[in-house]
Amino acid sequence: MVIGSDGDGDGGITSTPTEASAQSSGPMACSEAAVQALSGGFVLAGVAYLLAQTRRSSPYGRYVDPPERVRTVPARAAWFLQELPSFLVPVGLMWSSRGPPSGLGPRLLAGTFCLHYFQRTFIYSLLTKGRPYPLRIVLYAAIFCSMNGFFQGYYMLHCARYDEAWASDIRLVIGLILFFLGMAINVHSDYVLRSLREPGEVTYKIPKGGLFEYVSGANFFGEIVEWSGYAIATWSLPGLSFALFTVCSIGPRAYHHHRFYLEKFEDYPRSRKALVPFIF
Predict the structure, then answer these.
(1) Contacts for 181 with CB less than 8 Å, ≥ 6 apart
(2) Cα–Cα separations (whole angstroms), residue 192 to 143, 186, 187, 195, 250
């Protein structure tokens, strides 16, 4: 597998590609400096978010401030609006570039990214039974999803290059297995959580089944596995920086959920871990 960029920089992990793309041509040629800067920015933002959550969890869901103090958005509308840019922006980039990225590699990986956000935007958002979200959180999430959607789409369209051997590369195979395994865990865990509540109910119960038998944050674990797989499959700085941001943003939330369950339910299984089965 060959991954690099069409900019003037040295371009990450590269060798001589046998499948050169024309992605560097046109009005939005690849900028290696921009890729590196945005990747570094995502990592720094993730670390800052991680440190902020050591004091308290992000104020949404069960940790939301009293409703009378904040403006809120219904959960279904909130999820739809904040996740939509991650789907629309890459699709818009492809449309403006007159089609999907050239070559099997960029097409497949851009497709996996869009698949996740299609599910989150058009399926998950319509099924969720969560509490209303603070408007401020929805706006912040929509801004991040817009930036990340542009970043990942831009990289796949204008920077990523793979040779013909990429289709059988072990990094691609392992990465895709992890991506779809993580997505399956995430979707099933969301189903388990939804099944705990009747329509209109907002009380919390002990989740059971699937990976919830081992961790309190099974849905978070699944998403971390998913984006870790994406990072391996793309073997790129944008993929890696997004995976690290995901760990930093939802990893602490799994810990706070675990502590919440232990404090609220006397019969909560003490053998469960917070995020990683048998470890943490």
Answers:
(1) 225, 226, 229
(2) 29, 10, 9, 5, 18
Q: How far apart are CA 220 and CA 147, in angstroms?
A: 21
Judge whether residue 184 has pLDDT over 90.
yes
* Average pLDDT score over residue span 78-98: 92
State the DSSP code for 131.
P
> Per the structure block, which two tokens stand in for 170?
């072990």
**For position 25, what pLDDT does the model report?**
42
In sequence order, what are the beta bridge partners of 73?
A: 133
